[in-house]
């Protein structure tokens, strides 16, 4: 990382303007994200220039509507407008094949209903997960065996362990304070079962830590200097749109991919790899060179659903153990309004 500590803090903590980086509705960007090795490999294969692009370019357009031919059951086009100018007139973008990868808050379900009166079957599982993340400087606790560990964590495991945490160093810092461990770390506190950490002040958060975690871990947090706001993320659910069940009712030339199809409990670090695997599968379908364009969305939906199913089983089998589990099935647009 070439950024200075100040740039890093500014990047992660500009809470007033989370859209300034062009990623609205993606508050997970403030949290620590783990990318599985397989996901990283696929990203490198699919996008060799990714690193340069990530550093140098931000997309600034927002898709706002589908343009369709109802009688042919085809998506032909999307309307988009400049993201930072809500009043700007929209522009039509024609494409032979449209991939909607607009993430967990995708409007796609709403658009499909408006355009085709298509209701996408869905299921949501709520398990009361919360992440509170912040950046801090670690200081000596007096226990050398703890202080010598740079990465420390304690995993959630409902129903017995409903609270957990993770500490990961992100940057060395120069300091004159001999009690400092000389690094900025990301500190993450997690819970399930709605046993939410307090995020209104660090004092209250410490009380929660004292109650929920072992005393030795409490001592790490107690001796910490907090360098950023406490960022909370509470809207994490397993949320699956069962696109595969719709068969040929699904429109041609249009697919959802990644979180737009399914979000998972992030504790298991599957989300990015799920999206990468689906992207690779889509490329494979095109490379097979034997499918008609009109069939590709249906073929992809079947194969993408198989990938989602594997990840879904991993997340939900474990989440199933949460005592206050809430399961909701039906039309996703209605679901999100009532939850
Ligand atoms: C707190 C938290 C922690 C997580 N930790 C991990 C982890 O450790 N490991 C892991 O693998 N996954 C993790 N995930 C999940 C991971 O973030 C997602 O699975 C992954 O980002 C999905 O990628 P995506 O491309 O489908 O969607 P996103 O990354 O959400 O990207 C969607 C993009 O579409 C843009 N967009 C939205 N609407 C429009 C529109 N109308 N027009 C144009 N653009 C639009 C958004 O601004 C965004 O840039 C975590 C999630 C959360 C919430």
Within CATH, the superfamily of the largest domain carries the name FAD/NAD(P)-binding domain
The best one-word shape is elongated
Hetero groups bound? flavin-adenine dinucleotide
In terms of DSSP E residues, the strand content is: 25-35%
Q: Treating each run of at least 4 consecutive H or I residues as one helix, how many helices?
A: 10
Gap between N and C termini, in Å?
A: 40 Å
The CATH first-level class of the largest domain comes to: Alpha Beta
Enumerate the spans where pLDDT stays under 50 for 5 or more consecutive residues.
Answer: 18-22
Q: Work out the oligomeric state of the chains in this entry.
A: single chain
| Biggest sheet statistics | 8 strands, antiparallel
| Overall average residue pLDDT | 87
Please give the radius of gyration in angstroms. Answer: 22 Å
CATH architecture heading of the largest domain: 3-Layer(bba) Sandwich
Fraction of residues in helix: 25-40%
Total domains: 2
Q: What is the number of E strands?
A: 13
Structural class by SSE content: alpha+beta
The CATH topology of the largest domain corresponds to: FAD/NAD(P)-binding domain
Order of helices and strands: HHHEEEEHEHEEEHHEEEEHHEH
Characterization of the model:
With 339 residues, the chain is α+β, with helices and mostly antiparallel strands. The chain folds into two domains: 61-125 and 236-338, 3-Layer(bba) Sandwich (FAD/NAD(P)-binding domain); 129-234. The chain has ten helices and 13 strands. Strands 5, 6, 7, 8, 9, 10, 12 and 13 form an eight-stranded antiparallel sheet that branches. It has a three-stranded antiparallel sheet with strand order 1-2-3. A two-stranded parallel sheet has the order 4-11. A hairpin with an 8-residue loop joins strand 2 (74-82) and strand 3 (91-94). It is elongated and about 70 Å long. The relative contact order is 0.17. It binds flavin-adenine dinucleotide. Flavin-adenine dinucleotide is lined by residues 23-26, 28, 31, 33-35, 62-63, 101-104, 107, 131, 233, 236, 258-260, 266, 269-273, 275.
